[in-house]
Each structure stands twice: as C-alpha cells, then as structure tokens.
Amino acid sequence: MSASLASLLAFGLTGSDWLTVLVWFVVVTQLTIFSVTLYLHRCAAHRGVDMHPVLSHFFRFWTWLTTAMRTKEWVAIHRKHHAHCETEDDPHSPQVYGIQKVVLHGVALYQDAAKNDADMEKYGIGTPDDWIERKIYHPWNAAGPTLMLFIDVALFGAVGITIWALQMLWIPVMAAGVVNGLGHWWGYRNFETQDRSTNLTPWGLLIGGEELHNNHHAFPSSAKFALRSYELDIGWVALRLFEMLGLAKVLRVAPQLETRAIDAPDAETLRAVLAHRFSVMTAYFRGVMLPLLREEANKASDKMHRVTRRLRRALASDGRWLDANGRERLAQWIEQRPSLATVVEYRRRLSAVLERSGKSSDAVLESLKEWCADAERSGIATLQQFAQALRGYALKPARI
Q1: What is the DSSP code (8-state) at residue 188?
Q2: Number of folded domains in the chain?
Q3: 36, 221, 229, 370: least CB-packed within 10 angstroms?
Q4: What are the tens digits of pLDDT across the range 94-110?
C-alpha cells in the first residue's frame, strides 16, 4: 500500500486536524437538530411555520441522511404524545415508563410506537407523500446513515467512524432522552399545564430551543418557544433569518395578553382567557394561592416550613400527580384551612369554565362573568384583585 493511500485512509481528504473535525461535528449536529426542531416539529407536526420547498426538502434530506427517521412516523408519534400526554397512551412519558427508561431507551420506545400502523395513519396525516418519500426516504431510511458513514470516513479517515457514531447518538440522546425524558421530569415551569413538561434552561441553544419544553406544551402551535424576556430560542433566531431570506413564513406564535379597565368580562376577555388558559391558571396559583400558603407557613410550626415546597407543587397541580393516599391527605389539609379551601374551590370552578365542556361561547362568557362577580364578593383580597384583573384581559395584536 502506498504512503499516500495509507495517509488517505488514516486521515481522510481533510487531513483530520482537530479544528476541522470539531467544526464539522458542530455544524452537522446542529443541522440535524435544526432539521428536527424546525422542520419535523414546528413545521410538519404543528404547522407553526411554512417553509419554501427548497428548505423543507433540504431538511427532509438531512434527516434521512443523519437519523434514519421517517417524517410521517416522527410527526405521528409526536402528535400522539400531545394528545395523550402523561397517560398510558403517551409513547414516551417518564411518568409512565420511568425517567431511566425514557432517557436510556427512548429510541426503543420510539420504534415500538412506530409499529402501530393505525396511529401512523391517524396522527401522521398531512405529511409528505411524494415520489422521493415513497421510493427512497421511507423504504430506504437506513441507507441515509450508511451514506453518512462513508462521507465521514472519506473526509476524516479512521476518526470519521467516531464522528459518525457521535452523530448517530445525538438525536437519541439529546432529543429522545433529554427532551422527552428530562423535559418532563426536571426544570422550571412558566405554565401550569396539565402535564409535567418543564423548561430545562432559559437559553435554548444546544438543542435548537427544544429546551423550552414547558413553553411549547402551553402553546404547541407557536413557532417561537421563548416566551419570557430572559429566554432565548436559537431555533426561532434561525426561523427569522430564513423568513428574511424568503425561505420560510411564520404562521403562528403564542398570543400576548394585555389588560383593560372594564366592569365585566366581554367577548374579548373570553378569547384571551381561552387562548391563555394555562397562563391564567398559573397567574391564579401564584397571585391568589401562594400568598395564602405563605401565610399558613408563617403561622405554622417548623415542620410546616420544611414541607412548603412539596405542598406548593401539590397545590399547583391540584394533587394531580399524587397517589390516592396523597390526594386524600392534601384534601384534608386544605379543608382545615377555610381561606385556602375557598380559593382552591374557586380555581376548580375557573378551570371548569375554561374547559368549556361543549358549551356555546355565550354560555361560557356568562359563566365567566358569574365567576368574576362571585370572586369579587369573596372577601379574600388576593382573589378579588385577580378577578378584577381577569375581567379586563385581552389579546395584543399579533406581531409575527
């Protein structure tokens, strides 16, 4: 074997200097993350953004090349996750399967879910079904990563195998493991959604903004995941750049609230609270219930001070994630504190109003008016203040 051929096999076409290797690895893994978060997630699954055919097909191609995932399967599994979040029908809930199972074996859960043909048809509707999808991307999905292996080896020689292996692990670890696992297990919550979704960090840089998972569950169709002034979604930055270049059009972002000085809720109030029902319930807990809980803690023993955080979590979810014994104990604890019991009951009433339960808009508005009137007569200062603010809620004009 000639020296030049041996050198080519060992170091590839680039010579395998470590700076080149590092730059290549960062670029290809971020392209893969963007393919998932921008195309599969925000565009194909939730229709929050529309992409130019050139851009959408590039992301389809890159997903095929680097992950072997099929668009229809990914979209269907993700939509089912939202439809049945944290239940036995959720394809990858750590509350059902356990955090270790989802983090370490998320790919296996994904593969199991993809075998359900009925779900693929039900939840995968509207995904690409053109010639290249039917003839190449779907039946030959494993050929993409195989081709990627040859590319990595050709560019970097023997070290290309390591680069390829890390590429193949990136989505299983960072998406299937971190987002689907830790994103429903640990972190902070801006919104009291009816699931356990969390934001892992306010700076969504490493995995395309998917770190802001609780924000996404509160507003699934929003193309922008950062919803607080201190949050950053790198995927949104990319989308805005593509929009400036004429390669994408943002269709939906989470609406923002404003308040007005009015005497009673009106149709605009109803639109606002229904669009922002998780924000409303979060504001209720933080503005009405937490002050009362702190008062109880200040009056109670040292033992009460130690369990305040646990009580806070239980009260925030209305005991949804406690076992039967825990819910019974929580109910007894609340019953012994009349003011807290009152605001808990008002929260349940408000939640029922926002659920609509098949009622017409006029009927829901009447229920909301009644709730606000009763709350303002309750004699509980925090509840009265919340009701006065709630009746004036309105949606700011959307700025996309």
Answers
A1: B
A2: 2
A3: 229
A4: 999 999 999 999 999 99
